[in-house]
User: What shape does this take?
Amino acid sequence: MKRDPQPTPAQRLRRMHDVLMHAYGPQFWWPAQSPFEVILGAYLTQNTAWKAVERSLAILRAAGALTVEGMRVISVVKLRRLIRPSGFITRKAPALKAFVRLLDKQFGGSLAALAALPTEELRQRLIALPGVGPETADAILLYALGHPVPIADEYLRRIAERHGLLASPTGRRHITYDALTSLTRHAFAADPAPAQAQLFNEFHALTVAVGKAHCGRTARCESCPLAADLNSSFQPSALSSKPAPPERWPAVNPKKLTAES
Assistant: This one.
């Protein structure tokens, strides 16, 4: 009897999206009221819990600094004080000011003009800024500027490692960021190009949701929607119940970019 071929890691990851969507529903991520607020959040959330970022954003909002103009006129000293809940203020405050200087000097202060650059060129411009690594750059590209790029984080790394989707070259938990994003890109390669930005958006948010609930430093596989993926006979249609959905947030619409977003 001929056996069906085993799914590839990319096919399994694409199936995980469908399973998580079935379990949790749309996540409406990133929580923000404007694209510029998304960018600030992407900087502030580095090495920081989101609850702390929320406190910093609330303080910035009260100070009128959640716009390009507000961030432009505020001093670095004051900015450090306002973002203190997010930590690493001596690094994050100058990095935020550097982003605004780039926006003003090269794009007339317009996020729409920035977003109009080709994806790879824009990504390299962002990564060249202080305080911006690949994950922060991709978060800004996807969530604030609407470019179809996948994002990888520690939750996805744990999923990929524990489900055997990727092998570390050294065998010691060194799956790279590029390997994770490449796998994600292959997983959604067959989907229509216009839909990929939303798919990458939802998939990243869904992996965060399942990661917080089940795939922390210690795996908690009981009742995890992805537990059946470890069984080669798993079929998504076999799911019959849904875990309670996580807290949801209003999503920013990157298509509504303005010069002062």
Notes: The chain is about 55% helix and 0% strand. The two ends are 60 Å apart (CA to CA). Residues 9-28+150-238 form a domain with the Endonuclease Iii, domain 2 fold (CATH 1.10.1670). Confidence is low (pLDDT under 50) at residues 233-252.
